[in-house]
Amino acid sequence: MTDFPVRIAFDEARAIIERIGSEHRLPSEQIALPRAHGRVAAQDVVAAIPLPPFDNSAMDGYALRHADLRPDGETTLRLTGEQFAGPSLDLRVGADECSRITTGAPMPDGADTVVMKENTAIEGDRVRVLVAPKPGAHVRRAGEDTRVGETVLRSGQALTPSRIALAASMGLAAIDTARRPTVAVFTTGDELVEPGLPLRPGQIYNSNRELLMGLLRADGLEPTAWPTLPDEPARIESMLRDAAQAFDLVITCGAVSAGEKDHIPALLQTQGRVHFWKVRMRPGMPLLFGELENAMFLGLPGNPVSVLATYLTLGRGLIDAMQGRAEPRPRFFARLAAPWRKTHERLEFLRGRLRSAEDGVLHVEPNPADGSHRMRAAADSDALIMLPEKVQEYPTGGVVEVLPY
Ligand SMILES: Nc1nc2c(c(=O)[nH]1)N[C@H]1C(S)=C(S)[C@@H](COP(=O)(O)OP(=O)(O)OC[C@H]3O[C@@H](n4cnc5c(N)ncnc54)[C@H](O)[C@@H]3O)O[C@H]1N2
Ligand code: MOO
């Protein structure tokens, strides 16, 4: 008898992870803008200044009054000043006058239109306007992008470079963001050898550590890799406890299935807490989610492709929830470029390669090597193909959800 759900549906696993992750939301901290990239905003940003802050020119040329231009043919204006991008010189353009202006420079008083330099000829202090611009041409109006008081960023949004740049253009030097989880990464198993060392019969190189560290780093985290756990319960317990006291999230891979050396589920049941064990998905079925000491605990199955699939489909969601990310990640759909037949009823995250054709349709080519140890197939692919529970036949051209990686 267990007091936690076992062999649950993927959607249920995702819902539990999102709920528990949000309950363990990390505190927010104010952080300098250059360090906020990739984090999640923990405050709304309301525009305190308009954007652009003042009327300014969109072109290098001459600022003039449109009313002075002759409707038929050229007009000659008197050049009375020059305003470059920089501090405003408080210039004024009067009747039949113009002022030299550069892109981004404030519009002189009186001027309402800019003529591009290329459409003029200059003779001493006279400017001939060869091609008349339309009224108001090439003027960027104060506040046309953002008005004062508008909410331009919301708490829970991911801080992309464009959003950081928007905050910078409002003059913000720092922003409240969710603290990023600290993550301890463990691999397990007496068969593992670090790359660079000789391999003895029965041993394999540790590839999951690089995989998991890379996935976490690509999501903006700074994970810490611990030495590989031996298949020995006392040492596993002491190392995992150490990590769980100091980190927000502990992620292990391996030792969560049914083997005699799969010690992690028992450890969590007796010394921590299990929120669920085993999800009806392939790969990744023996996934374990719980808590140990102060940390959230994610026990990923050891097969390398299971690590990839469980991190992308559930691990990332936990990290998002812990940071209070409210914005759903974009979803993508594609047409199968070849038919597929599942040999089981579980939800499958098959690997495949995306390509888009000129008709604007995204296609995905399934890789037939579907075993969860087939890292080569995962490396040759660039997306997980989601094949729902129960359905087993997937015809060519059928629409499937894909998760690019
Ligand atoms: N009787 C059962 N056997 C298995 C079940 C089951 O339900 N009943 N589930 C299978 C499924 S599905 C998976 S997935 C695996 C998961 O097992 P574990 O999470 O306990 O992982 P391990 O046994 O430790 O390792 C599995 C596999 O992956 C290799 N591995 C482990 N760590 C690494 C690493 N860091 N780098 C590269 N490769 C690694 C390991 O050598 C094994 O080959 O269990 C099935 N069995
Ligand atoms: O579900 Mo396991 O993850 O086959 O590989």
Automatic annotation (TrEMBL):
It is an enzyme of class 2 (transferase). InterPro entries: MoaB/Mog-like_dom_sf, MoaB/Mog_dom, MoeA-like, MoeA_C_domain_IV, MoeA_C_domain_IV_sf, MoeA_linker/N, MoeA_linker/N_sf. The keyword Membrane does not apply. Pathway: Cofactor biosynthesis; molybdopterin biosynthesis. Its EC number is 2.10.1.1. Its cofactor is Mg(2+). GO terms for biological process: Mo-molybdopterin cofactor biosynthetic process. It comes from the Bacteria. Coiled coil: none annotated. It catalyses: adenylyl-molybdopterin + molybdate = Mo-molybdopterin + AMP + H(+). Keywords: Magnesium, Metal-binding, Molybdenum, Molybdenum cofactor biosynthesis, Transferase. Residues 184-321 form the MoaB/Mog domain. Gene3D superfamilies: MoaB/Mog-like domain, MoeA, C-terminal, domain IV, Molybdopterin biosynthesis moea protein, domain 2, Molybdopterin biosynthesis moea protein, domain 3. GO terms for cellular component: cytosol. GO terms for molecular function: metal ion binding; molybdopterin molybdotransferase activity. Catalyzes the insertion of molybdate into adenylated molybdopterin with the concomitant release of AMP. Belongs to the MoeA family. This is Molybdopterin molybdenumtransferase. It comes from Luteimonas gilva.
